[in-house]
Write a structure and sequence with these properties.
mainly alpha, 1 helix, 90% helix, protein heterodimerization activity
């Protein structure tokens, strides 16, 4: 820009570029935080499902044990 004799635009453009970069960085960090939160929630859900499956298996085993004791 300076070589083309547009010096008066250099400072405002640099300022605008800095504002843009800060906004993009903020968006990127927000997206990163959102992704981490989503991953954490997905892991929690998986753990809950595994625990539910374990509970069901234990109940079935208890029922089988009770049936074996009956016979």
């Amino acid at each position: 820009m300076e070589e083309m004799e547009f010096q008066r635009f250099v400072a405002p453009l640099k300022e605008s570029l800095e504002v843009y970069r800060r906004e993009q960085k903020g968006k990127k960090e927000a997206r990163k935080d959102k992704d981490k939160k989503a991953d954490s929630e997905e892991q929690d859900k998986s753990r809950e499902e595994e625990n539910d499956d374990d509970d069901e298996r234990m109940e079935e085993e208890e029922q089988n044990d009770e049936e074996e004791e009956f016979y």
